[in-house]
């Protein structure tokens, strides 16, 4: 098979590495890719939002399967374009990707079909939002309705903070048109868990659990980011919790989307909060999480390409999904100043330390080639993942491996998985 991956981050690098393990695959392309992906795939200089150019490339190069890693092209309708040209593509169509593209849509869906989630209100007028806040209980959560690179959620502890948040999202347009509509949600407490699921439009198969660390600084302080690190599995995601989620969240979501005429085929990412009242949905995404993919996929024993094909063909129940009985931790190496202001173009050294070491992975997120060297090219630069027999061992291995890499402005959190480690 010839496979094309659409995207350029650490998630796409993890997907490429997993696809490369499949005996069914002969050639991998990635558009646009990055310096790390270039070691397992041929990178193609076509942007992820250039749907027609990507589809033409797939036709000309006889691509057997296209895998879309990113949210923007999915929400924009890349799958519809590919299918319109008779191409085989993995991901939800535009009318299903709205489950991530609009938080208001997903909240209304959950309310209509009685899927447990936080209480909420939706606003398109900042004055109405401010008036509502005057009577609301603090802390409270503000969510830009559209895509915002994982950063469009503000947790506000005071009324003043919340009012400032409305201004930031709806008036200052910090997240662009994503802030045209605003969801104001009750603040839930509990353990967060992320579960990625394979979906074939009717059936759903959850993968192993993971937990992300969104804040920029140690102790969950600082601004929200795309994710500073993650671990898998979550010890709090018990079989009892998994069974509840399958009965009350996962399958009902699939059934709801189908009933709405929006059958969901692809990866459904379910962000959960394990509250005192049981698991509730924090958010849905329509693709692999980043950096969740970097800890979930290295633990997957089953053939990833076979999973994609089972989803496309509507035969997911026949697919045998198996994970290693181990753990994985990913620590993100970022550029100092992320997620606000940071510099690019610094040489990265130490990649050779990963050569031939089983259980250690260096996934490239924001890298590029410059004068034959690999340099920093983004806020999140690398995802250093290590496995181990348990979370404590995996965490120690990951923090050992981050020392193998060096670049100017290298920044990371030092507490990824620490709370679990000490539990």
TrEMBL record:
Q: In which pathway does it act?
A: Purine metabolism; IMP biosynthesis via de novo pathway; N(1)-(5-phospho-D-ribosyl)glycinamide from 5-phospho-alpha-D-ribose 1-diphosphate: step 2/2
PROSITE patterns per UniProt: ATP_GRASP (PS50975), GARS (PS00184)
What are this entry's molecular-function GO terms? ATP binding; metal ion binding; phosphoribosylamine-glycine ligase activity
Q: Which Pfam families does this chain map to?
A: GARS_A, GARS_C, GARS_N
Its keywords, alphabetically, are: ATP-binding, Ligase, Manganese, Metal-binding, Nucleotide-binding, Purine biosynthesis
Q: Does the keyword Ligase apply?
A: yes
Q: Which PANTHER family match?
A: PHOSPHORIBOSYLAMINE--GLYCINE LIGASE, PHOSPHORIBOSYLAMINE--GLYCINE LIGASE, CHLOROPLASTIC
Similarity annotation = Belongs to the GARS family.
Q: What is this protein called?
A: Phosphoribosylamine--glycine ligase
